[in-house]
Amino acid sequence: MTYNDKKQFYLAVDCVIFGYEDYKLKLLLQPRPIEPSKGEWALMGGFCGDAETLENAANRVLEKTTGLTNIYMKQVQAFSQVNRDPGGRVISVAFFALINIRNYDDDLLKQYGAQWFSIEEIPNLIFDHAEIVENAMQQLRRTAKIQPIGFELLPENFTITQLRNLYEAIYQCTLEPANFRRKIMSMKLLDRLPFKDKNSSRKGAYLYSFNQEKYENLSAQGFSFDISHAQM
Amino acid sequence: MTYNDKKQFYLAVDCVIFGYEDYKLKLLLQPRPIEPSKGEWALMGGFCGDAETLENAANRVLEKTTGLTNIYMKQVQAFSQVNRDPGGRVISVAFFALINIRNYDDDLLKQYGAQWFSIEEIPNLIFDHAEIVENAMQQLRRTAKIQPIGFELLPENFTITQLRNLYEAIYQCTLEPANFRRKIMSMKLLDRLPFKDKNSSRKGAYLYSFNQEKYENLSAQGFSFDISHAQM
DNA sequence: CCAAAAGTGTTCACGCTACACCCATGC
DNA sequence: GCATGGGTGTAGCGTGAACACTTTTGG
Fold first, then answer.
1. Distances A159 to A28, A167, A200, B61, B196 between C-alpha atoms, Å
2. Residues in chain B closer than 8 A to A228 (CB atoms)
3. Could you tell me if A39 and A91 lie in one domain?
4. Pick from B134, B136, B185, B135: which is nearest to B159 by CA?
5. Nucleotides of D under 7 A from a protein CB
6. A174 near A166, Cβ under 8 Å?
7. Residue B181, CB, less than 7 Å from strand D?
8. Which residues of chain A have pLDDT under 50?
9. Distance (Å) from the alpha carbon of A194 to chain B's nearest alpha carbon
């Protein structure tokens, strides 16, 4: 090996898994399964394996702990404070993931003792996980303004009001319903379905689905998703 | 050690060093000093040491190869393709750095055989360095719109025209001089100095300097730097 | 008929664009 | 005085904010 004289490091991935429910942005946490700090609240994580990339490792962790594949996932950054993990010199690369909380396998929740926490009520976390969460949160907020990733947190079909509530949860703000609707509609990325959701009003609200194909076509033509000018 | 059964990895940092000169955004490259691929064009890099963070390592590399400290630097992301480095399983964490090309020590340039390349004329790079550069470039473009980092690439004192030319180089576009000037001025982040630069016009253009303190004060009050609506 | 949420219309103000125009100065 | 880049003025347009208004339907 060429680099024999160089130091080697343990490499971990930590997943900041976001979900949305009850008008709240939530975070999936589990009691840490191994020493040190066993039992304390932690992000879902694991070590990177020999033959896998960090992205592979993060997907493996996500699938194992949520039962879901094809999850939206993005690297946040590497965390490398020398003493961040009392168990050894471990560099952690964080990812944030967005999942539709309804698809989440409740059995796995029990199996790992995992729980969803509202982002306003996050318990004490091990190591530097609070910093990681804070960082992931910022990246989510930054990204959601300029890429259509909010849809990842909603069911396949949703109403405009649900979408607005989601953005209100992400940005902790209130948005003018009329203006939000027009802003989203003007992008022409949603397909209106022939059904209405009557759960929240007598009149009923049309359901929409995000059309990925339209988005890609428009993007190829120079279009950019952008809701950053909607009072956030 | 708690994690004895886990695999360990070599950890490198690679620095994408941007500079600005002759109306062009430039990148500092050096011939790779070690095997494999010795002598081919590569990013400035190095291995992470035992007692340092990745940020420490990147700063060490930057200081060694540019002679400069207190450089603006930001993590891009980790690159972990299994075969990205034929010399071994090396995970690389990339950083992008912005330096004032005038402060750069030309002796070091000779010492390392380093060269500045216009970002439009980047030679073939080793490993996945082209991908790293592409990624860093995107992050620079994204960041420069919403944070006042352009100034890092200019001398302490600069004219509004110079600043505009810089943004034109970053975004490969042309900007209306009158409108750009007003946009920047409206943020009230620049101090006008009592001198003029007469290099580029008979009338002379006032020199300005970026006032970091004002920026921090305004930021604390909810102000956000944003030039994203200046035809970019 | 009424309440309540969905959805539409309309006004206002601000900010970006485009371009005309003045300013200062070295030759 | 004129060419050149610095710098200002300004009209027009587009878009977001605010809020009034209409629509639909279960009780």
1. 25, 13, 10, 52, 58
2. 228
3. yes
4. B185
5. 3-10, 15-20, 23-26
6. no
7. yes
8. none
9. 37
Assess whether A62 and A79 both reside in one domain: yes
The distance (Å) linking the CA of B192 with the C1' of D14 is: 33
Strand C contact with A130 (CB < 7 A): no
pTM of the entire predicted model: 0.94
The whole domain housing A39 covers: 10-146
Residue B78 lies in a domain: yes
Cβ contact B48–A80 (<8 Å): yes
What is the tally of structural domains in chain A? 2
Q: Mind telling me how many Å the CA of A48 is from chain B's nearest CA?
A: 8
* Chain mean position to CA B192: 25
C1' (C24) to CA (B168) span, angstroms? 26
Residue ranges in A12-78 assigned as alpha helix (H)? 54-66
How many helices (H) and strands (E) in chain A?
A: 6, 9
Question: Within a domain: residue A228?
Answer: no
Per-block average pLDDT, block size 10, for chain B (232 residues)?
Answer: 89 97 95 93 96 97 92 97 96 97 83 94 97 98 95 96 96 94 95 93 95 94 87 70
Report yes or no: A72 and A97 within 8 Å, Cβ to Cβ: yes
